[in-house]
Every structure is written in structure tokens, then in C-alpha cells.
Amino acid sequence: MEFYVxxxxxxxxxxxxxxxxxxxxxxxxxxxxxxxxxxxKSKIYTALVYEVHNNPPHAYEAKxxxxxxxxxxxxxxxxxxxxxxxxxxxxxTLGEVFRSAVPSAFLLESETLVLxxxxxxxxxxxxxxxxxxxxxxxxxxxxxxxxxxSEILEKKTVxxxxxxxxxxxxxxLQETLHSQYxxxxxxxVRLDAQYESEEALVTLLDEMSRAPKQRQVLLTLFQAQAExxxxxxxxxxxxxxxxxxxxxxTLIDKGxxxxxMIRTDRISFDGDPxxxxxxxxxxFQKISLNEITTAxxxxxxxxxxxxxxxxxxxxYMTLMESFIREEKQVLYLLPEIALTTQLISRLQxxxxxxxxxxxxxxSLNERVEVWNNVRRGAEKAQVVIGARSSLFLPFTQLGLVxxxxxxxxxxxxxxxxxxxxxxxxxxxxARLHGAKVLLGSATPSLESFYNxxxxxxxxxxxxxxxxxxxxxxxxxxxxRDASRRKRMTGHFSEALQKEIExxxxxxxxxxxxxxxxxxxxxxECTSCGHAPQCPNCxxxxxxxxxxxQLRCHYCGFHELMQPQCKACGNATLDTKGFxxxxxxxxxxxxxxxxxxxxxxxxxxxxxYAYEKIITAFANKEFxxxxxxxxxxxxxxxxxxxxxxxxxxxxxxNFPDFRxxxxxxxxxxxxxxxxxxxxxxxxxxxxxxxxxxxVLQQVVSGDYHALxxxxxxxRREYHYPPVNRIIKxxxxxxxxxxxxxxxxWFGKGxxxxxxxxxxxxxxxPVARIRNRYIKQV
Length: 776
Description:
alpha/beta; 25 helices; 22% strand
């Protein structure tokens, strides 16, 4: 009987592919194991076993698999069911979910090896110079990669030459799979077994009296081994004994020390595992915890609606502890990598070495290690804290998912596919595991609050701040009036300047929020009105003064800022609008004594950049932090007493049906960074339109009024959460082709859905990376 296996390939094709396997292999295969399979003429892909069966494919002849990679499944059955749901709901292929779900180190890549054909006698006088060089190198090395062949010949195009040699039978080609993951190994040393007794060591130390440095190394090692039986790393031994690596190497060569390589995880807990700092709950937090626990008896999802600084994290941690006691795994989802840096230390204080971290700023090898620890159910991966990608980890005993700041836009993946929303996908994942979900926010999304109102989710509200602190005072500053009365210095109103002065005078800190990076979004010539545009996108170039560059924030195009206008040649260039860089510059002039830091995409590019800025600000190394919406996320700074919002109108006037909801959330969240300890904080919102309903709701902190207003509008215009909406984007480099295709598609949809179809329309930015965009 013939056996076949259906596999998932990490490519955007809708279907599974079938390969032939022999009966021995078929009996050993399990769903979720990896295979290497040939695809097309020369490619080898890492595929995932979906099903083993006896039905040959009808449309094509099944090929043999190349090799089996795993002995145990890499992906479990629940994960595959979850991926299937993501593929169906978010309209993409299972292969696309597979590619984005697993760390790329697991998608082994094929590399062609060139080998010498030993069965053929080569007549050397018939060989060209290059052919001779290749065969000579193969004689010495045995095999070469194609890259190495081009290095030997010092030319890029070597494939035609190799093809000729292959036809003549001089060489053979072989596909091999290479793994990108390399385990981390530490070089350790211990005393050789013959010197472990005290007498032998005393004798050895007497012999070493003339080599004081070697003697010092042995004493340090003996002391360390008395405290712990574990081998000591050579780096630690070097530091503790105050010697050099050559001294240790000499002792190894003499056979006094024994050297050993030990495999270790890249991310490890450095603290004392016995020291645990349990969160202490106030009365109102205990009430909320009881309400959540009671809601979990009937419902799988519960919403914790707690004002900023009400101590939601303490409630999460207490709840997590109860699930860990039952030996369940906990997933703690955060919208931003910036947040993980502050929370990791808090969670490690509570759960010690049970905490693992997973997000895209980690290296490939670090992500592989966390994946393997979660799959094994290792103790060090009982609590996983991470951004949206941690949703795809191979949990086996998932008991609780906490989605912090659940309203956040960052939970949504826009490109590439799968375009999933981590909050919604987490709820489905928890349902497959029979786990519970706790959503937390000070400004819940309308979708989640609607589910509370319709009885789908449990609900608990915390209206007090931890430690009895009052919520900050929020004031609106009318900058239209201030400009008319000439009471503005740059982009700072008189009121904001005074408050910054007072706050700095009291030794407190300030956060200033402006949701635009760079120096100015538009550079315009005052003579002819020309503004430099991106050649690839329909946007103006943003001026970055630090690098003296004009940059496109969509495609990354950049050019040097010219002193003259490109259109008319006059040196009359002026900037319009302002970004974080300009605020930073103005602060240097207004408050020369103050230390100013900036947190935006330009300053947080490195792996530890977030951590450095957040830690520096928390340690009062900066007096003022200027930032984009990164500073609005649930960060906890103890000494911030003033928050200034430079211009609230740019948020309110955004062309999106969620603009008012997002403005309320963003402004309330950034206001919540103020006055989190002893003193009541102050928030100043600069605006040209202080009478705007949403701004009035922010001042009064009235979430329910916002919910009511927005829901009335959503019902009237058939928007979520009352209706579901699907946005289809078309992209093409030809303008006319795009128009024809979208009109044809729009007509087809109207035949079925009638007036429920909006568009096709151009979005506000109608061309990105030389592709025109239209949406339905």
C-alpha cells in the first residue's frame, strides 16, 4: 500500500501539497513535524505535516519527500486549529500564517553544495583556467557552496560555468539543509577529579607557591565549588580571581583544571529565585479580583476597566499566581515592546525564573530558545510576556491570557498577511485551550465595551488610583486665542511655559506629547509655494534637522536638505507644522538648564534603546521627555507631575471612523502618566478648538458619554461594533489598470451587496512605494 502526506508549505498558496512517503516513515510521522520537500525545479522548502493518508493526488504525480527534520512535532494540534481559524477569518493562506508564526530559524533553507565527481577521470589539458581552479579547490576542501565558488573565481555569475561542468560530468550538485539556529555554549572549568580531596589540593597549592596567579585561580575556584557544585564559567573565574585567560589556559594544559562546554539559554533570570515579592492588594483591587473570578465561572472573557494608575498590574499578577499554582501556563500580551522592559522586572520580582520574554527585538536564537521552552512546558516558561507574535508559541497547558491595554491599535497587524488582531486571536486561542482571558484598559475599545453591554464578557471597574491619589487636573489651552494675543513662544503657550517652569523648579519631571516625529512635516518655498515630495509616494518629505535630511516616513527615501528651492532657486525655504525634533530644539532655547530626552522611532531603533531611554527617565537623568505615542502606553514614571499635549487637533481631524475614539484613548492615556505618586498631576492640552465634544469628555474623564455618542454614530452609519466591515485594498503600479480593476470589482460586489459597498476610493495617501492604492 502506498502512503502519502499532505503538507503546509510556507508560501502564499491556498492549498496543501501531497508527497509520497514509504511505510516506515509514514508510521513515524505525526501532525506538526517538519519535513524537507522538493518544490518546483530546484527549491527545497521546510514543510509541516498536516495529514498522512493513502490517496494519491489527481492533478499531479506526487514527488518523494527529501528528508524528515523532526523526531517530535514542532507545532501542536491546537496551534494548527488556531492557524486555520486565523487563515479563514483574516482571509489569507495557512502557509502565510505558518511563515509568520514560527521563528525563521525553524524554516531551514536549502543551499546547493558543489562536489567533485570521483567516478570520472578528468583530462586536465581539456580544462579551462576557471574549471581547473574549481576542481583544485574541491580536491582540497571536498565540497564548496556556490557563494564560495564565486569568491574563488572573483566573479558573480558562476552558474553557467557550473552548468557546463555538470553536463561534462566533472562535478555533482547536492542540496543540503542548513539551520540558522546556533545554541549558546559557555566554556566552564572545574578541578580535575584527582585534586578534589582536601589533602591533594593542599599539596598542589604548596607546589604552586612560585606561581601566585595560578594559585589565586585555584583558591577562587575551590571557594566557588564549595558554595555551589556547578562548573564555573571561565569568564566568571577570570573576573573573580583577577587574572587573565592565559593563566587559566596554562592550568588546563597542565591537567589541573578540566574544561567543558555547557549549553545554556541566552535569556536567563539573574536574581535570587528564593526572593519573591508578592503584590499587596488594596480593598478596591480585592473587590475587582473577586468580581473577575466570579465572572470566570460563567464567562471565558472578562474586562477590567481601571483608571490609569489604579494598580491593574497587581490584580493581573495575583490572578496569574492562582493559575501558576495549578501548573497552568500564562500569556501576558502587551501592545508595545517599550512596555515589556518595565514589566519584566516587576514580574521577575513576583515569579522569579518562571518568566520568559518573546518579541521581535530579540535575536533569532533567543526566540528559538523561548519557543522550545514553551513547547517542553519548562518551568522557566510558565509566564510568557510579549508582543502580539507571542500568541503563536506552542502552549500545551495554557490557563490564562492577560491582554493589557486591550484598546491599543498596535495589537493589529496590517502588513504582511496574516492581518490579525492579537486581542481577538488570543480570545479564540484561549477558547481552544479551555483557558480564560482578562482584558485590561483605562479606556476600553468600543468593541470590548459593547460585548460587556450585550452580556458576552464579564466586567469589573476600578475607579480609584492606587494609594488614594487623585486623577490629574486636565485643562484646555486655547492656542488660537493665545496666538491672536501674541502669547505664544514657538509652539509653547504662556500657560504651558509657566507650568513647565514650576514643575522643574520643584524637581519634578515633564512629559510632552506630539504625535509626529522629525523636525517639520512640510518644507515650503515662500516664493513659489513648492514643497519637496517623495518620488515614490504621494506625501511631502519630512525635515529631520539632526541629520539635515528630508525623509519619507512611508518608504524610507531620503535626500540632503538643500538651502535653495529646487523649483525657483530662491533661498526662501520655510517649515510648516512641527514634530518631536522641533519641540526638543525649542526646549533647549526656552529652558537651557533642563535635560531633554526624546522617544520616537528615530531614537529607539536598537535592541536596548527603549530600555535605556525609559530607565534614564525613571532615574531622573532627563527632566523633560518629548515623545510620540510611545510615551502614552502604560509606562509608570514616579516623578512626572506635568503632561503637555502640544496639539490635540491633528488627532481629532484624522480621516478614520475611529478617530474620535482613538483621540479620547490617547489623550486619556498620556494624561494618566501624570501624578502617579504623592502629588496630584496637571495635564495641559493645547488646541485650536477647546469646545470640541471629545476634548470636553477627556477633561471630565467621561468614558460613558464618549461610548454613547460614538455608538449612536456607528449605528447610524453602519460601522463596527454594530456591523462588520471588510476593507479590501488594491495596489498596482499602473494608474489606469488599478482604476479599471477596482471599478469592475466594485460593480461585482454591488450586484451582491447593493449599497453596503463603499468605494472604490483613493485613501488619503494614494501612492506608496510607486504603487497606486484604491480601497473598497
